[in-house]
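Re: Re: token formats

Sure, here are both.
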Amino acid sequence: MMLTDPVNITFECPPVDPLGREHVIGKLRFLPDEVELSWRLKGNVFTGGKGEMSTIVLPYGEIEHVELIKRWWKIRKLVFRVSDPRLLGDIPVSEMGKLEMEIDDRSRREAKKLESLIDFKRSIFLLDAQEELLRAMRDLDRAD
């Protein structure tokens, strides 16, 4: 995998009740510079058609944790946490910046690449933030 190849994960968050309310479906795209979370509410008998597609753009620095949950040696769920809960506040099934997603069968192979990709991208972000802090400290020393 090249570092510029996006990783695409199709997911769904099952409804919270038997009536099918708040059933979320979407796609998580790990791009070279950011993560795009596209989602919509799936329609049911009571609410009618599909909901409108929404997209949330997240920088890699906002991603706090990504965990793959396996059951019987296959990846079944992805737990996605961000540092600022307001970023996922519009998604009804998110809890305090945490979103549990059931991964589509076709996306399981792509999901195996996630742990190393997120660690790499997050380390680059942290390194850039540290260099910026050091540069600001040097500029303060020169100004004195």
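Second one below.
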Amino acid sequence: MTADSPSDTGAERDVGDDGPRYVWLTPDRQATVRTILLGIALFAGLVVWVWHSLGAETRPAALAGKLRVVGVMTWLYALVQIADMRFWHSSISEKRRLQSGIPESVIGWLFGQMLACFGIVYYGLTEDARWYVAGLALLLATFAIFPIRRDD
């Protein structure tokens, strides 16, 4: 017995330029995806807050310093990609969008989610919620920067 390949599930259309790959990702479902992304970020932040309120240990300052370097690199990467998708529209951004078949708005939201997730990890290890709050704020900003497009 063999499993069906992803293309046999009906969730995808042809990969060519003639249409979107994920036909199930309608504007209504994009709203659901956006809500789920926000819910995950808020729930994970709540879990970390409860964990710290129970008296969890924090990590040494050396780890926090290394995490800050990773955080700065992550933020720079995400901000450049968001600006590219929103303003510059480079060939790399267009290739990524065409190859994935995912709407640009969802890709933008995922960059915002990436920053919120880094903030959750940093908050969990250091008890410093600033990176999480900033990531959550940028996630909310991506919802405004990349609205759901209703091309009906």
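The radius of gyration is 18 Å. The helical segments are 27-53, 61-88, 91-100, 104-126, 130-145.
- S.
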